[in-house]
Amino acid sequence: MGTLGYATWLAYDLSMVIIVFVLQGAMILRLYALYMKSRKVLALLSVALVAEQAVNVVIMVYEYRFISAVEESLLGSHICSISITVAWWIPVSNDVVVLAFHTMAAVLTLYHLVVYLKQRQQLLSLQEMLLSKDLRIILIRDNILCYLITVKLTALTTLADGAVIRTISLTVVTAVIGPRIILNIRSHGLRTDTAREFNAFTGRFQDNGPPEAKCEDTMSSWT
């Protein structure tokens, strides 16, 4: 593989590190909001994120010395990919670190859900969990879903042991999961703003009275 190929691979990996860092940072902020701006939760997850990314970068730099170009077949198409010949436990250790961070986030999410259900004194049905428009439920639901997808994709990349599969998994995480958890919050914000504006309008309408009443008052004053 030439210098351009190495540079392209390195630029791609660095960009993925940055994107994943941003998405996991968003996950931290979601838990920070769930725990009512708890600084302990923020500090714990921030330290875990920095440690995870540090391990990821160290492994990436180490693997850089052992990559080579190979031809792979994906759905009948031949593509140029990379092969990294290192001990099996090196990429697996990276996956373990990633799963450790997401497991920590999932445990905090489930703990908050248990506390919430105790306060609510009523279990949530599956339909409520999937369709609820409550912001708290949206955050909990997305966090759990993100964890389950991450576990499945990590297991797939570990078992398949292919650069193509790993690339597809990272694409799913960055292009599907990330935007989805952001859009869910934006959708809730839009609904909240619309409801607030409607309530403000109806409040003014009730204070001033309907237009028909104003017309009747005006006509009666003329007569």
Order of helices and strands: HHEEHHHHH
Largest sheet: 2 strands, antiparallel
The proportion of residues in beta strands is 5-15%
Question: Averaged pLDDT, please?
Answer: 73
Distance between the termini: 95 Å
Would you report the number of β strands? 2
Oligomer type: single chain
Q: What strand line-up does the widest sheet have? A: 1-2
DSSP helix fraction: over 70%
Name the shape in a single word: elongated
Radius of gyration: 25 Å
Flag low-confidence runs. 210-223
Number of helices: 7
Count of spatially separate domains? 1
Structural class of the helix and strand makeup?
mainly alpha
Keywords: Membrane, Transmembrane, Transmembrane helix
Transmembrane segments: 12-35, 41-62, 96-117, 138-157, 163-183
Protein name: G-protein coupled receptors family 1 profile domain-containing protein
Tell me what the structure shows:
The chain has 223 residues and is mainly alpha-helical. The protein has 7 helices and 2 strands; from the N terminus they run ααββααααα. The chain has helices at residues 3-34, 39-63, 89-120, 126-131, 135-160, 163-208, 211-222, and strands at 67-74, 77-84. A hairpin with a 2-residue loop joins strand 1 (67-74) and strand 2 (77-84). Helix 1 (3-34) packs antiparallel against helix 2, helix 1 packs parallel to helix 3 (89-120) and helix 3 (89-120) runs antiparallel to helix 5. It is elongated, with a radius of gyration of 25 Å. The N and C termini lie far apart (95 Å).
